[in-house]
């Protein structure tokens, strides 16, 4: 596209219109996630909404309904999972592992939801990153970008045993133990921004 000299607001607005016409049109994105208690599902949905707001066609799938989904069809792929006992869900590891080559060939993002990511300490950050690195090593996939995302303490979603276990753990870690409510640590503005970042990645693919 020939560049126009930038003279005044009209030129800027015209240039922006060019970008939105050419950049996001026809970009297809896939968002696949695994979620044990539903919070990663909410984050995946929010990322998908943010990408749609940028003009992308987004196919949002729980991994259980993504058996027949092939990354080859998409310009960009987002994969999300949450940490439970320091592991991401096996179902998403299997999905990624069997599609590794196709994932490597397009822009991709892996986001990992955890309570470690909600902690403001080097130790917790290292723990979250260690689990992400292990997921990548075990699946053999190197995502274009990895993103730890602070999750939610969902007392109201847990069964009796898990609720008690989490209360004990949280007491030790100095977190809330009142199980009558949930504690959402997710930076939702950051999640929206992540969706916009992925849209830019997709744009680079379709205009390349
Ligand atoms: C039984 C259990 C184990 C968990 N283990 C970890 C863990 O090892 N590391 C961590 O950072 N967060 C851990 N979490 C926190 C979850 O990753 C967090 O609550 C996340 O938001 C759950 O997302 P989901 O609802 O999509 O499964 C654990 C939560 C539960 C209930």
Explain how this protein is built.
This protein is an alpha/beta fold and about 210 residues long. The chain folds into 2 domains: about 25-150 and about 190-205, Flavodoxin domain (Rossmann fold); about 155-185, no CATH class. The chain is about 45% helix and about 20% strand. It has helices at about 10-25, 40-55, 90-95, 100-105, 120-140, 160-175, 190-205; strands at about 30-35, 55-60, 75-85, 85-90, 110-115, 145-150, 150-155, 185. The strands form 2 sheets. Strands 1, 2, 3, 4, 5 and 6 form a 6-stranded mixed β-sheet that branches. A two-stranded antiparallel ribbon has the order 7-8. Helix 2 (about 40-55) crosses helix 7 (about 190-205). The chain is globular. Bound molecules: flavin mononucleotide. Flavin mononucleotide binds near residues 113 and 116.
Structural class determined from secondary elements: alpha/beta
The CATH class of the largest domain is Alpha Beta
Q: Report the span from N to C terminus.
A: 12 Å
User: H/E order of the elements?
Assistant: HEHEEEHHEHEEHEH
Give a list of the ligands: flavin mononucleotide
Number of domains: 2
**CATH T-level fold name of the largest domain:** Rossmann fold
